[in-house]
Design goal:
globular; TIM Barrel; 8-stranded parallel sheet
Length: about 240
Amino acid sequence: MSHKLPHTLSLRYERTIERIQAACSSAGRDADEITLVAVSKTFSMERIQELYELGHRDFGENKVQEFVQKEEALKSAGLCPDIRWHFVGHLQRNKVKIILGRFHLFHGLDSARIADTINQRVRSGQGPIHCLVQVNISEEETKFGVREQDTVQFVRSLVSHENIRIKGLMGMARQSQNATDTRSDFTRLRILRDEIASESDLFVDSGLLSMGMSEDYELAISEGATHVRIGSSIFGSRYVSQ
């Protein structure tokens, strides 16, 4: 293994942490309020291990087969024993059974059909599945998620699902070069989270808010994100050899 690679990863990770801390300081927030989910999709098990050895524990994947292969390989090798996996992508109903019990938090609950399937497939003794409802806050047809205007009622409908715990909301801002547009999407998602959180029986805890990626996580933090999902700023480009 190249001696340069861990150093490069270390510098990227350190810089990302510094930017998160600076964004929190500017927003009058405590950096401990932010969970950095390192999105490791397409990157190797070795890269995950390198970041784990730097002290990081929260990793995000969005492809079921790739996720399961990595999770099983690390477990069988006795590596990264206290890693926390986050599933951050769209989940097909026929893949639900494969990954239940493997992740810490599901960031993509986007339909009643998926909610029903998860609720039905949880095995005895497995415990409830912690989920974030994905909201299509950008209203882009290419993105999954519940419509903004339907979200409150959707969350209400999940209260009866005994094997699901709704922890908050997740969303992605529209693709725009205009920071005002991006901030507007994040603001609306935060307001929606606060509206739902005001009904005390809807969220478990106070309501998490997963928003912000490599290109916009500082704006997301300024608008109240509790979880930011960052890949390329830490791992580098997915389209060149690392």
